[in-house]
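Researcher: We plan to redesign the surface later, but first we want a full-length starting point. Tokens attached.
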């Protein structure tokens, strides 16, 4: 057995043809005839030099504007141009070049010159002797003599040709000419071969041509194949999903500016949008993804993609030369006149801004769309390009509902709105939420939302994973500011943020501002036109973790400071946040005062307040009036939900508190109880008890007082619930007249131009009385509807008064009656404008998503009345994907019937 080598190879297992390891290769034996070896080496060196020089000519052929290169015909290398023909004689020598070395070529050239002069060969001939050494004294003397032919010249190291500057420089040896050729080969655009490999390949092709193959010629238009230039479109848009769901108000791929920067978190659907928009784009579109690509390689690779689409094929006569951004410019310049292209560059955030600018400047007439994740350096980039970074609007609520429905999870409208807020409508975030709801929360969208908002969910979402990667790289100050904005929940001005930061212990304003800029640069913060800032909606669930990092003391200071900042603001977002802070900071009495105000139930109040109010109602240590106010609020919520059993339970609790309250119960509390009792009596049909209670309560109050008017309205309301619509309507009109006298209003104030009415409402010290006047009109309208009677112009002033007094829910309710009034007199376009420009914006701005189903079903009918049956069907069908209440289902069914009836009518004949 032979000796064992490391790795288990045995010496005696080597086959006869196996190459031994380098350290075992024997040294070559000395040649028997050294002179013969010298001659052989010199001969092959000369031929190799000649072939490499021909390769150099070939690599510059297109740049020189030549048509063809031939080898080993009348001279070593021939190059033909449109008007001239070069004959190159390549000579390599150990010593100086002598006249004897070139004499034969010069004399033979006389015959060649004659052929050209006779017109048998085209172009003006030139003979150029190329050598690796300097001419000897004798040759130099001859070249200076007057009889030296003007069309014969020499080219040697350090002496370029004066006219044919494109010719490769000569080198002293093979290494020199090979190195030069290699550098030229690296400049071949779209090359698939390494520079050295391409040179040796071309040298072999030259040598083969010298044998007579392929007519010994290389045409310029054949060079791409000879160079193995790889001009092929490697990239294309990722395959879009089978069902594409568009963004709301989705933009086109190209806009007014030649360059647009579209940013968004991973999962925002940028690439999918671009792929879809590209299909509609009238320009030819090239997609290019720079992800994981070295910046230096980007321009050339992008040039290849553009060239593959626009320059390759039979129509292409040449390919541009250059490297890097130069070849991109060249490709752009080679585009046919009048061709404008669109280019989508994806993941542009992975490129340095300077490199992005170079790309843009190399494509001056192209429409370039840059897609990337938000980064701080994109702010100066956008400024340099003279553009503003854009973001896709995200999915709308119908699309969110459709995505959940596709996973078997049906959402009601308010829950769909919650999902939209949690995910910011970003496609990946919505889709993953739908899957998680299906798999973990038994298809219960509300349960999913509650778990995410409370941060009690156990399964991480892609949304958290994506945003956490960004979050981890934030500075400590930026994390703290994120926590503060998370606690605030509402947009803050810069001074307000500074106050919250001070409450949390960040006392340096510059540090806070720097942290805010850091968040903005990463797309984690949104800035409004008025300068206020807030967190990106998608970040809100994750940002709660930053808030948890604050100490308990700091959190308390921040909550108290925020409560002070928000107090007194009427905007719904700030008011709602302030209400929840009241509960969290122990200001229950203030919260109870709010529940007793007319407008408290008119907007989308925070639903979690119900739990706080319910605790107050059951807390026996609380004073009687506070508990009575709490039961009143709970009763009102029950009334809105048509939960009459709960309504009755809270009214009876108010009765018990009034009986035991003693001196704590005053006229206001007694009137409040009576108004609730009247509604209960009406619902149960106890009209006699209603009349008795009304007269008894009325006898204890002065006439023409606010308490007396409140009782009269509650009595009319009770009659309505008892089904006494005629009496209820009459009582409502009489009370409306009383309110008009009290407010000093004339009929002209209520119809037509209502500017004076709005001014009077705004100047009034008791604006709630204007709202109560609207309640009277509204009750009359409801009675007329029940009686199928005409309610005339009453709905319009009621709607306006509700809008003026901030009674948003009631304004939408009466607004729908106004729409019906307009439809009866064929003012369909005005009716559509009212829904689109007032009612739906109010429902959206004041967080009343539960009203959208009714609004949109009515809108569908209005659309059908305008003649747009397709839009009407689309609108009504979009509601089918929502979970709806029985009343909403009946409404949709009824409105669908109207739309189809309108659709079946014969079209009016053309005039």
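Model: Full-length starting sequence:
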């Amino acid at each position: 057995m032979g000796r064992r080598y490391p790795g288990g190879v045995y010496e005696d297992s080597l086959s006869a043809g196996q190459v031994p390891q380098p350290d075992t290769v024997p040294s070559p034996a000395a040649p028997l005839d050294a002179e013969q070896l010298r001659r052989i080496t010199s001969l092959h060196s000369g031929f190799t030099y000649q072939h490499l020089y021909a390769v150099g000519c070939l690599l510059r052929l297109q740049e020189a504007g030549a048509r063809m290169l031939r080898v080993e015909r009348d001279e070593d290398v021939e190059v033909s141009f449109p008007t001239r023909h070069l004959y190159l004689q390549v000579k390599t020598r150990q010593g100086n070049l002598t006249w004897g070395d070139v004499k034969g070529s010069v004399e033979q050239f006389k015959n060649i010159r004659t052929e050209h002069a006779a017109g048998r060969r085209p172009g003006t001939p030139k003979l150029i002797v190329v050598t690796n050494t300097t001419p000897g004294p004798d040759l130099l003397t001859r070249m200076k003599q007057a009889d030296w032919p003007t069309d014969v010249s020499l080219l040697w190291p350090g002496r370029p040709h004066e006219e044919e500057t494109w010719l490769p420089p000569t080198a002293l040896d093979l290494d020199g000419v090979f190195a030069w050729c290699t550098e030229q080969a690296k400049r071949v655009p779209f090359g698939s071969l390494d520079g050295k490999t391409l040179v040796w390949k071309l040298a072999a092709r030259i040598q083969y041509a010298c044998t007579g193959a392929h007519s010994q010629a290389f045409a310029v238009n054949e060079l791409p194949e000879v160079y193995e230039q790889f001009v092929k479109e490697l990239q294309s848009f990722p395959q879009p999903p089978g069902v594409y769901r568009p963004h709301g108000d989705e933009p086109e791929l190209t806009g007014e500016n030649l360059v647009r920067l579209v940013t968004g978190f991973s999962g925002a659907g940028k690439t999918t949008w671009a792929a879809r928009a590209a299909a509609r784009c009238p320009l030819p579109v090239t997609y290019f993804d720079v992800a994981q690509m070295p910046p230096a390689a980007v321009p050339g690779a992008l040039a290849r993609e553009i060239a593959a689409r626009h320059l390759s094929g039979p129509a292409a006569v040449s390919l541009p030369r250059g490297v890097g951004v130069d070849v991109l410019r060249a490709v752009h310049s080679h585009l046919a006149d009048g061709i404008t292209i669109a280019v989508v560059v994806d993941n542009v955030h992975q490129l340095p801004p300077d490199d992005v600018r170079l790309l843009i400047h190399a494509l001056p007439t192209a429409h370039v769309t840059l897609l990337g994740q938000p980064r701080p350096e994109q702010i100066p980039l956008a400024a340099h390009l003279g553009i503003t970074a854009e973001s896709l609007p995200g999915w709308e609520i119908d699309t969110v509902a459709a995505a959940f429905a596709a996973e078997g999870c049906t959402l009601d409208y308010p829950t769909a709105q919650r999902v939209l807020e949690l995910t910011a409508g970003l496609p990946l975030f919505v889709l993953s939420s739908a899957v998680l709801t299906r798999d973990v929360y038994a298809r219960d969208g509300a349960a999913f939302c509650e778990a995410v908002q409370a941060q009690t969910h156990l399964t991480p979402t892609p949304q958290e994973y994506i945003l956490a990667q960004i979050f981890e790289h934030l500075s400590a100050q930026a994390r703290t500011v994120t926590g503060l904005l998370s606690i605030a929940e509402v947009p803050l001005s810069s001074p307000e943020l500074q106050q919250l930061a001070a409450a949390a212990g960040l006392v340096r304003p510059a540090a806070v501002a720097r942290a805010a800029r850091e968040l903005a640069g990463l797309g984690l913060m949104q800035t409004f036109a008025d300068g206020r800032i807030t967190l990106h909606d998608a970040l809100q669930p994750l940002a709660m973790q930053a808030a948890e990092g604050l100490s308990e003391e700091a959190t308390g200071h921040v909550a108290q400071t925020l409560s002070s900042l928000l107090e007194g603001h009427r905007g719904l977002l700030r008011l709602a946040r302030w209400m929840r802070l009241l509960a969290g900071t122990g200001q229950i009495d203030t919260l109870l005062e709010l529940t007793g105000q007319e407008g408290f139930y008119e907007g989308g109040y925070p639903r979690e307040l119900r739990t706080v109010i319910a605790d107050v109602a059951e807390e026996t240590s609380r004073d009687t009036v506070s508990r009575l106010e709490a039961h009143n609020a709970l009763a009102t919520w029950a009334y809105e939900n048509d939960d009459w059993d709960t309504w009755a339970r809270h009214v009876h609790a108010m009765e018990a508190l009034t009986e035991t309250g003693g001196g704590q119960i005053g006229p206001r509390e007694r009137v409040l109880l009576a108004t609730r009792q009247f509604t209960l009596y009406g619902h149960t049909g106890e009209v006699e008890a209603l009349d008795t209670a009304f007269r008894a309560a009325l006898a204890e109050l002065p006439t023409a007082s606010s308490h007396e008017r409140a009782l009269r309205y509650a009595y009319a309301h009770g009659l309505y619930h008892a089904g006494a619509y005629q009496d209820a309507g009459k009582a409502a009109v009489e009370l409306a007249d009383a309110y008009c006298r009290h407010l000093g209003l004339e009929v002209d104030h209520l119809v037509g131009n209502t500017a004076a009415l709005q001014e009077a409402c705004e100047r009034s010290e008791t604006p709630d009385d204007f709202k109560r006047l609207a309640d009277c009109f509204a009750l009359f309208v409801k009675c007329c509807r029940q009686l199928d009677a005409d309610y005339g112009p009453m709905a319009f002033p009621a709607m306006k008064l509700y809008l003026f007094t901030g009674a948003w829910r009631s304004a939408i309710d009466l607004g729908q009656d106004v729409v019906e009034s307009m439809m009866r007199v064929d003012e369909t376009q005005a009716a559509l404008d009212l829904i689109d420009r007032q009612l739906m914006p109010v429902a959206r701005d004041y967080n009343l998503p539960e009203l959208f189903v009714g609004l949109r079903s009515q809108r569908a009918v209005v659309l059908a009345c305008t003649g747009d049956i397709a839009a009407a069907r689309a609108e009504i069908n979009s509601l089918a994907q929502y979970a709806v209440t029985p009343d909403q289902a009946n409404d949709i069914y009824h409105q669908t019937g109207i739309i189809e009836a309108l659709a079946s009518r014969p079209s009016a004949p053309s005039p």
